Amino acid sequence: MRDHFSDLLYSISYTTRPRRKGEQNGVDYYFIPKDEFEKGISQHQWAEWAEVHGNYYGTSAKFLDNGLSAKRDILLDIDVQGTRQILARYPDGITIFILPPSLEILKQRLEARGTDSPEVIAVRLDNARKEMAQKNIYRHRVTNDRLSDATAEMVTIFESYRS
């Protein structure tokens, strides 16, 4: 999306999970210790946060508030729990649920990544099932069957709000 909209801010999430091979701090995520994240919870630092697969993930409230004050559009990559929290705080947010073509294809994609054990993949698939059951809280739904088609659909959605 950022290739199509150069002025779009991207919210980099904070997480307590370990870095995967090739990930960079401040690019893929901000990797922080669990106690630091928990301190941020108590200080209301997060616009949304969740514990997922045993790790914390969150979005900086300061980053969002500063971006919105500057009249900027901001792209977040968050789960259903986070979306519910964001909509409670920012009810005019435009939400898009990105669906896999099927759970079987999602399983194949997770296995092909080679980063998770079969047990972790099973948990992720169970969570995906639960999240997909909540897709109707989103204004838009895009199926990521072919990346180019899904990207084109996302661009069309963004352009409809900007025109």
Write the layout of secondary structure elements.
Layout: E1 9-10, E2 14-15, E3 30-31, H1 34-42, E4 46-52, E5 55-60, H2 61-69, E6 74-75, H3 80-89, E7 96-99, H4 103-113, H5 118-132, E8 140-143, H6 147-162
Parallel strand pairs: 1-6, 2-3, 7-8
Antiparallel strand pairs: 2-5, 4-5
Describe, in plain words, how this protein is organized in 3D.
There is one protein chain. This protein is of the alpha/beta class and 163 residues long. It folds into two domains: 6-93, P-loop containing nucleotide triphosphate hydrolases (Rossmann fold); 94-163, 3-Layer(aba) Sandwich (Rossmann fold), CATH 3.40.50.300. The chain has six helices and eight strands. The protein has helices spanning 34-42, 61-69, 80-89, 103-113, 118-132, 147-162, and strands spanning 9-10, 14-15, 30-31, 46-52, 55-60, 74-75, 96-99, 140-143. A four-stranded mixed β-sheet has the order 3-2-5-4. It has a two-stranded parallel sheet with strand order 1-6. Strand 4 and strand 5 (55-60) form a beta hairpin. Helix 4 (103-113) runs antiparallel to helix 5. The chain is globular. The two termini are 17 Å apart.
